[in-house]
Amino acid sequence: MKIYDGTAIRNVALVGHGHTGKTQLVSALLFTAGVVNRLGKVDEGTSITDYDEEEIQRKFSISAALAHAEWGKAKINFVDTPGYNIFFHEAEGAIVAADAALILVHGVAGLEVQTEKAWELAERHRLPRAVIVSQMDRDRASFERALEAARAAFGRAVVPVQLPLGEEKNFKGVVDLVRMKAFLDDANGSGKAKEGEIPAELRTAADKAHEALVEMVAEGNDKLMEEFFEKGTIPPEDLVPGLRQAVSDQRVIPMLAASGLANVGSENLLNFIVDFLPSPAERGEAEGFASEGGEPVKRKIADDQPVSAFVFKTVADPFAGRLSYFRVMSGVVKNEANLVNFSRGGTERLSHISLVQGKALAPVAELRAGDIGAVAKLRDTLTGDTLGEKGAPIHYPKLKLAEPAISFAIEPKSRGDEDKLSTAIHRMLEEDSLLRFSRDGQTKEFLIAGAGQQHVEVAVSKLKKRFNVEVTLKAPKVPYRETIRGKADAQGRHKKQTGGHGQYGDCKIKLEPLPRGAGFEFVNDIFGGAIPKNFIPAVEKGIVEAAARGYLAGYPVVDFRVILYDGSYHDVDSSEIAFKLAGSKGFKACMEQAKPCLLEPIMNVEITVPETNSGDIMGNLNGRRGRIQGMDNRSGSAIIKGQVPLSEMLTYASDLTSMTQGRGTYSMEFSHYDIVPQHIADKIISASKAAGVGKEVEEE
Ligand SMILES: Nc1nc2c(ncn2[C@@H]2O[C@H](COP(=O)(O)OP(=O)(O)OP(=O)(O)O)[C@@H](O)[C@H]2O)c(=O)[nH]1
Ligand SMILES: [Mg+2]
Question: Which of 258, 254, 196 is CA-nearest to residue 29?
């Protein structure tokens, strides 16, 4: 393939609610552009961007995927992202590769929970965006209704640049409101369209919509406004650059119609992307930092700048090894280049840089500023790292990390599986920023945490298929934590001085609560060498380890400060291990006084149900210790938002189905930790005691 420079590239991310047809649409666009000679279909497992076994089996996207097509003089890079809420963190990671977002709105369902999340995501990244009303061929699809809903949610900047030619089964093409022509699609599903006059029955609607578009483009552009007032319209030669600028400035959010399955509207959508969405070069500068946490700096997105590239995704392949997806932020990345990993130090050789087409890689000689590609087998580079030319360091912002919502214990099926488990899981953690893996200090169980049950199930399935490690998934666990509400002051002394070489460590510490989310702080307040400097880290280590094992019910203690202020030592008998044990003892003694309590994760929950169910749903949430924060009504549905403890939501999926006869849906994400009410905490603590937690062998 030809090598494109930043002015001829368009990087677009497709984002939106699950099932809106993002993956299908990418397939249609690739087919229309001649990349493949058959229309790939999600339902048949032949789409380009849902290539992973898990995706083919489940028929939805699990991770972000790349594809690209040449169209006219440009190359379009597509970033297909999952819409399903528990995989949405993938969209968060991948959107940094894009310069514009296509937000898909389902032609029948209209706006959904993740539509707004997708919008917020694009807005946070300050990306120009367009709304695509998808699946226009379906029964009861309505462009008009989608427009109303999008305007109500996102404001009047949402303006059609197309009108559908027919709807539902008769969706046959689009009216281009910029050029004021009709484009009737080829009946054989090639995605190509024939230009013609706007049909008489659409003329009035098209004129009105054209006028609305012209007005929106002129607003905020004095020169165009004048022209508009003088002539009553803006001619296409001015409207095209005007609209392009307005999209780039995010003053106008164009709305289009498409069907990925019937492959209607594809040619016009490709033209739209090339004509009206910004190139990386037009975005101008990339923002980064001179050092991790240092001063902000900017780097021009241009070939003549020093090389820098941002790794936005990692794929773990058991055979091919690690595959890193990167965006060239500046300069030209040549094959075989040696680049410094500014985030971790060390140099990486980029052998075999490639373009990515779903699962297929095609080697290229170089990638210019603004382009996207992949490279295999980097040694130490992970997602979120910046690579670049020696002597010109820059650090692009790290990706926002989401918190897992739920954790499960897993059990390796055999000894062989146990041996392979940890290596395999660590490869998977590189690929998925939201998965967490740990081992319970007391029960010795392996714990795996993710965004939801299905997220964890996918991980378990990947472990088996990719890494040949079999585990069983046990009942979900709530990741409780412990903290303190009061201050404490105590001594921890470890002394064993009978016969032979003795052990002696002694510390005095204070404990203080810290605000929620603050974690752990250690203050060394020792004066006059009451404890020799070299033993102080041992005291801290003893405390950290004891805190990780928990005090009340075996959950990690968080949000507290330790002040080490005094102690004593013995010239011969003091050792690191003795001070570690002293630290751990001091910590436990403090915990007794410090009013310890349990913390539980509180989730933001959003539930969509038929309006008639809303009363029952809210009553039910109250019974789950939920706090309702609001309710919206939208075309016959009620959307209820609230905060509910995770422990009360573990069986919600099936309860919601039975309360609404399967018509309710919900999503939830982690919000914060809060104190567990005493009567509930008592039960959790006695259950953990019964399970033997905390009965560790004293470490002496
Ligand atoms: N009738 C019709 N069905 C479509 C169209 N596009 C997609 N579908 C179907 O809708 C379902 C979802 O399509 P996908 O392309 O997987 O949707 P997605 O937005 O990628 O979904 P996630 O990956 O979960 O975010 C599949 O069953 C598709 O066959 C369309 O234009 N018309
Ligand atoms: Mg998809």
Answer: 258
